[in-house]
């Protein structure tokens, strides 16, 4: 069972695998078409499938394997966490290593992909950094941050001194006294 009061709900791994295969297969078709276009010899329009069709197959296999393994391991473990992405990433990366044809490449590509995908999911699954709480109002969040980092005015004045927009209580009277002492001029008080 999942931790806490939340109960895990199984997901359809086969449907996700088919969707993943179709999406990454289409991306593989695009890459294959680009490879076909950049060849020096004219191999024709069917070269997308005959000459560089292996690219389509690898892309489709990687996407389908990742999605199926990720959801199947989540269903078997009854947990939805980063380990599922790492397991799916390992098998998907292993397929990439199969093109090289050596065991170290299969294991290395699988391990690399597992670490990258597992870490990506563990850190929040975003490249933009920490996700904000969607339920908290932005104004309230910024006010909370200001209060959290606010320092007492006495501490600021003791470190920086007065002036430059930083004035403590009673500043006007002290300023009038300093000017009177130093220059002998009476500065009128503000009303």
Number of strands: 0
Number of helices: 8
N-to-C series of helices and strands? HHHHHHHH
Residue fraction in strands:
under 5%
Which bin fits the share of residues in helices?
A: 55-70%
Low-confidence stretches: none
Compose a concise summary of this entry.
Keywords: Membrane, Mitochondrion, Mitochondrion inner membrane, Transmembrane, Transmembrane helix. This protein has 191 residues and is an all-alpha fold.
Describe this protein's structure.
With about 190 residues, this protein is mainly α. The protein is about 65% helix and about 0% strand. The longest helix has 25 residues, at about 15-35. The N and C termini lie far apart (about 70 Å).
List the helices and strands and how they pair.
Blueprint: H1 13-37, H2 47-50, H3 53-77, H4 82-98, H5 103-122, H6 138-149, H7 153-160, H8 171-183
Keywords: Membrane, Mitochondrion, Mitochondrion inner membrane, Transmembrane, Transmembrane helix
Protein name: NADH-ubiquinone oxidoreductase 213 kDa subunit
Subcellular location: Mitochondrion inner membrane
For the structure shown, list the relevant keywords:
single chain, mainly alpha, 8 helices
